[in-house]
């Protein structure tokens, strides 16, 4: 004879079965979904690695060589004024701007052992730096008759780099290969800075940042570079023992 307790136990067992089956189904469903997600992410990673070009080998940014005409044109982006900036901070910024003028363009030309670098500033002033062997001659547009002559000492002196805005470029920051101005370029990115480097020459084509843009152009000189007479006389005087 079946008592009420036995009937209650059997009823509990029958009720537990569907719950157990439901739990198993949910577990299998979650496991299957998790597995598919991992498989899909691995597949996407493999797709990305197979489509993204391999990082280039050094040098990541080349150097100018031989005879050339090279221009850097700077474009500055409008910066929003900081409402919290104090008068003292504005005065400091104005002082720094006056002491360190902002470049508008750099024109460089080299033939043989003579190189001319003309730096044009947004203020309208400019300066010329001539390199002849181990001598450096500097003249300013607002004082054209005052010529500074210094001697370059290998191992002790150092000419300024042609691309100081690109010192951050390295293998780990390589992004992709893109065509810019009709040239296949390696693209590097760090924060708000992006550089496009010519794939064949490794010379920069374009630089973009939050503050400015730089466009680089290269040409072949039409004729040999000649030192102006007044600079040639100054150089001759400096070369006398």
Can you tell me about this structure?
The protein has 241 residues and is of the alpha+beta class. It has 2 domains: 1-47; 68-239, Clam (outer membrane lipoprotein receptor (LolB), chain A), CATH 2.50.20. Helices cover 30% and strands 34% of the residues. The protein has 3 helices and 11 strands. The chain has helices at residues 4-51, 87-99, 229-239, and strands at 68-76, 103-111, 114-121, 126-132, 135-140, 143-151, 174-180, 183-190, 193-198, 204-208, 212-219. The protein has an 11-stranded antiparallel sheet with strand order 6-5-4-3-2-1-11-10-9-8-7, with helices on one face. Strand 8 and strand 9 form a beta hairpin. It is globular, with a radius of gyration of 33 Å. Mean pLDDT is 82; it is low at 7-48.
Helices and strands in order:
Layout: H1 4-51, E1 68-76, H2 87-99, E2 103-111, E3 114-121, E4 126-132, E5 135-140, E6 143-151, E7 174-180, E8 183-190, E9 193-198, E10 204-208, E11 212-219, H3 229-239
Antiparallel strand pairs: 1-2, 1-11, 2-3, 3-4, 4-5, 5-6, 7-8, 8-9, 9-10, 10-11
What characteristics describe this protein?
outer membrane lipoprotein receptor (LolB), chain A, 241 residues, 30% helix
The geometry reads as globular
Sequence of secondary-structure elements: HEHEEEEEEEEEEH
The end-to-end distance, rounded to whole angstroms, is 131 Å
**CATH architecture title of the largest domain:** Clam
Structural class: alpha+beta
Q: List the strand order in the largest sheet.
A: 6-5-4-3-2-1-11-10-9-8-7
Radius of gyration: 33 Å
Unreliable stretches (pLDDT < 50, length at least 5) are 7-48
* Biggest sheet record: 11 strands, antiparallel
Helix content: 25-40%
Domain module count: 2
Count, helices: 3
- At the fold tier of CATH, the topology name of the largest domain is outer membrane lipoprotein receptor (LolB), chain A
CATH class of the largest domain: Mainly Beta
